[in-house]
Specification:
By secondary structure, the protein is mainly beta. It has seven helices and 29 strands.
Amino acid sequence: MKRILALGGVAAGLLASAAIAAPAHADSVPATNLANTNTAAKQVAAFWFGQAKANLVNATPYTAETTVSAKHVSTGGASADDKAGVVGSSGDQKAATGTLKNVNLPKTTGKVFFIGADHKPHWCSATSVQGQYKNLVATAGHCVYDTKSNAATLDKWVFIPGYYEGKTPWGIYVGKTAYTHYDYSVYEDGDRDYAFVTVYNGVIPTEGGTSGGKYESKLYDSKWDAYKAKKLLASDKTTALSKLDVVEVNKLSRFGKDTAVSVADFQAWNKGKNLTDPNGKWAWFTSASAPVSIDKSEYKSWTKDSYVSQDGTTLFWRVRKPGTQHDYLYFKRTFSAKLLKGYQVVGAKLSIGLKDVGTLGSNVGGQGLAYNQKIGTGIFEFGYPSGSHPDGNYAFSGKTQKWAYGKTFKAAAPSMKAEELVGIKSSFTGEGSIGSAWLYRYSNAKRLGYLNGVTIAVSDTDGNNRIDTNVSPYFDGETLAVYKTAAANWSGKIV
């Protein structure tokens, strides 16, 4: 589903001021683990680096978006809840004036990759933001939180600044913890569709490629219990296992229970061995009963020297009685084995040699944050637009970073619970542009500015089947509170 908004009315129509909202407190900012252990983070990195980066290369723009109807209204809308302010970037700058003919693209912009609700790899746009530990990424909330299947967060989440066709120039940064506004986490409020994510230090692969192994769970008595365990493993952020499945188990083990087995199974475990041998040396954890002498009347064949009972569990045979030509001795025996029987969860686990390349901010810098800015402010938008216009024209490939410039105006989209959005004129098409950074006072020399929005939807406002507007939540004091909570949390290294 593509989040294409139909914004009614004049694109530049402004909304009157809304009531001032109380800012969020740090203890009310929801925090959700993405990969909360080093082991999990290593597995996530291995997933994207492994198999010649096939999962990165094959990822597609995220399409779990919503088609909604939106409109401009004459009252209400986005407004400041306090004085305007900024939080410094990694290199503060003077205000840029107007548009620039040649824009130096920021190193902070990149793509976030994750597994979507369809269990396939996808990506959105995102940017590095300055924080206390230089480990912060900002993007759209629905590029972190799985609003389609209502899972907590999207799986195997990583940020790659400067990504291009499998290249990771500054490494991969595995997401650790995601922070968002309470109203988005609980109510999926479109006015708060943004997220700040702390990431571990970046990593690159060392020589030697990937390796891995098979994961096997404990044995479960019922298939239902095994599937329940599989579901828990799939949602466990400490394992990052893949290709999970439930299989029926019937195997030899010293921990198994002595169980009667068929002659066929016993022979399979003892290939090439004579099952009538009274002193046979059987495979580990298998055993045969001592041959039992039986009367001729119990033997059911006149022509065969051996046969298996109809139920498959007993071997009958005969041997010529010494010194005779037509008389036989008759025997039977049964077989057993120590068997583990039940159901097991199996899967794949990857490992890869990784090298630490330092913090995100140390490598690419971090944008500042601007909040409570007046409507009509000039904004540069940076992202990876992809997908077609409504008329089918593909203006952007999503492979390279693009930019747009516009002045903010008020917008609303009631059907997505968004009454206080801001928009800019932009031809960015929706799928790849979601999460694109809106930068206030962008310095072309320093390639830094202040994050003042993230693209959450696009719109054809004049009905000509061409995208002409992008929209974002309005960044206010409550956005600042979410940012501050996230920016104060350390991530550390994974290797």
